[in-house]
Amino acid sequence: MTDAHIAVGMLLILILTIFLGFPVAFTLMALGVGFGYYAYYDAGRMWRGYDRALESGGDAATLAQTWIGGFFNNRIFDLFVNQTYSVIQNDVLTAIPLFLFMGYIVERANIVDRLFSTLFSVTRRVPGSMAVAALVTCTLFATATGIVGAVVTLMGLLALPAMLKAKYDVRYATGVICAGGTLGILIPPSILLIVYAATSGISVVRMYAAALLPGLALAGFYLIYVVVRAILQPQLAPRPTKEDVGEHTPVQLAWMMLTSFAPLAFLILAVLGAILFGLATPSEAAAIGALGGLALAAAYRALTWQRLKESVYLTARTTAMVCWLFVGSATFASVFAYLGGQQFISDFVTGLDMSPLMFLILAQIIIFILGWPLEWTEIIVIFIPIFIPLLPHFGIDPLFFGILVAINLQTAFLSPPMAMSAYYLKGVSPPHVKLTDIFRGMMPYMLIVILCMVVIYLFPSIVYMLPNLLYGVQR
Q1: Percent of the chain, pLDDT > 90?
Q2: Which of the listed residues 88, 105, 128 is the one where a domain comes to its end?
Q3: Residue 268 and residue 63: Cα distance in Å, rounded?
Q4: First to last CA, the chain
Q5: Which residues form the TRAP C4-dicarboxylate transport system permease DctM subunit domain (predicted)?
Q6: Does the pLDDT of residue 302 top 70, yes or no?
Q7: Do 72 and 14 have their domain in common?
């Protein structure tokens, strides 16, 4: 058995342990260090001190000390320390805790209920008005937080009971909440895009510019589906009565929009605009967003010590998870490549003589399947580095590939049996809302995601238009 075969076995063990439910970050580190000990094993270097102590007739304590020193004199431990230091020093990743803090503090600012009721009042004459309001609220809130579970849960507590009370179809109502809640991982400022950029070496700023139009396009497709379905099947979304909406003058509606929709939209646009127009780095813009989130919570009189403490704790916990994933992935990938696993996979894939389209389809199918048991962070950090070195062979731009991956990962939250959005929503739904109904409600949105990927492939200018306009054509 060659070292390359051992590397492939290392990858298979990783996949098996993940499916068994072992913690991914610690599994990566354990496999990286374990197989790395074999890969970098050098008896002459490691046990030189022990051999000298043995030859000179050293006592038992000296022999034990030199043996332990020799055991840890493997270069894998140097590699592990260096990878940890590199992750901590990565300027791109500095933006992650700041964006997370902005999301958690905005989540606790108690503006979602006001935002939803305002949008419902404004869109009351649109078919499926309550679903439209829920989708727009989900999109805006998900973009601000980037935390799928928080968005789906809050909207499940707020919008779902209102839609069910208005006699909306259960599948229609649950589907729009689950789909809308996932958009935050695609539309900038998105943490997923930062992680992909750090993994692939792409500029975060260019990544954000490339993802903006595709993200809005997917949200637009969702919106079209919701409205058209309500027109064709009005029994799914009955029109609201005056008692449901209430009477509001245009001036009142404008004031409601100004006090609920405008502040959050301004915060998102300010952060995103500062990044896209080069006024601030992503980390600096994230700091602005965190400060803006605090100001927004204070303005809505929702900034309490308990909420601030919860936001800081959740930010630290999630950031630590992402950082240790990066450390484990970097260590695992280094050992995997050193053993020849990356070259083995590259030779195998290139030997299949696939066209670029066939490779793209195969890669997206693999990512789609991985989305069943894994979170997007694990897919980006562990498996995307395997695809990135193959892209030049097929003439595929990593930026374009990354946008397709970000769209595809919407399905990670929408595809049964491990559709996390469905479980988030089921946890806060009334007892009569069945999990199977939620699954069926999400199915059309999975097809819309696939449609969006096809459109992006056929019209790649949707991806390149904004980055080329702002920063010029990349050569």
Answers
A1: 12
A2: 88
A3: 63
A4: 42
A5: 11-461
A6: yes
A7: yes
